[in-house]
Amino acid sequence: MKVAFDPVYCHPLPEGHRFPMEKYELIPGQLLYECSYDQSDFFSPKPLKWELAAQVHTAEYIEALQKQTVTAKEARKIGLPMSAELVKRELIITQGTVDCCDFAIQNGVALNVAGGTHHAYAGSGEGFCILNDFAVAGAQLLTEGKVSKILIIDLDVHQGNGTAKIFENEKRVFTFSMHGKDNYPLRKEVSDLDIPLETGLSDKEYLSILRSTLDRLIAEQKPDILFYVSGVDILETDKLGKLSLSLEGCKERDRIVLETSRKKDIPLVIAMGGGYSKQLRVIVEAHCNTFRLAKEIFN
């Protein structure tokens, strides 16, 4: 089992900032403490080379990130205080997902403690996302000829709008987003398949929709690899989510995706996505469940 994590994931933000950076340190810490994972399971990615980012991001946007000329308005849209250190963090996270692709092809599954930056567009960032890690990693796989069809399973509560837009004309990538209908972003993009969910939807209905949809998509698309955004902002405790899944329901969601990947023998790359429950321990526990299941199912 290989997991991407680097201390730079925990890059500090100004006091009182609402983005929960602490989870990136606490997730691997908990997994090591309980002996679910060994230190040897974790690897530290190097920064992504800009030419790989350029496969999906515009030259103008990349230059603005490199020269730190992102405007105040653009930074507000991203929702993070821009700095050279933050951009380096994003490059390392994105490379982590790129590396996870090779590990998943070799071993069946690989996970990034961060990633799932699905709101980043080709020419801009938003919603805590600067570079689109799945778009970069997917484009690189296709360029290298390692796969011919990618299925992106985005189960974060927020639509993967940036990913949908980047791949809107790429037939080798199928984008599937199952998200809250009344949630951010206000203006949705068009994925290859969008399933907007009613506010307050609970475990039974959610899991039923996912089971039937995922089996059908894999049968139809015949993907060579699966990308999975496993955001835990679907929880009823989430401050931003508007859905009503229990911690056990969220875990069962992960089990469905992981067991489907194992049963179908399709490599699986997992990135964490969002999570904004009031209690940090709930966020960490929900994310740790994803890692625990990966060990259980793929060992």
UniProtKB/TrEMBL annotation:
Could you tell me the Gene Ontology terms of the biological process aspect for this record?
A: epigenetic regulation of gene expression
Signal sequence: where? none
Q: Kindly state which keywords UniProt assigns to this record, in alphabetical order.
A: Hydrolase
Q: Which domain of life is it from?
A: Bacteria
Sequence ranges assigned to domain Histone deacetylase in this UniProt record: 21-288
A GO molecular-function term, please? hydrolase activity
Entries under InterPro entries matching the protein = HDAC_classIV (IPR044150), HDACs (IPR000286), His_deacetylse_dom (IPR023801), His_deacetylse_dom_sf (IPR037138), Ureohydrolase_dom_sf (IPR023696)
Record's family? Belongs to the histone deacetylase family.
Protein known as: Deacetylase
Which organism does this sequence originate in? Jiulongibacter sediminis
Write the lineage as a comma-separated list: Bacteria, Pseudomonadati, Bacteroidota, Cytophagia, Cytophagales
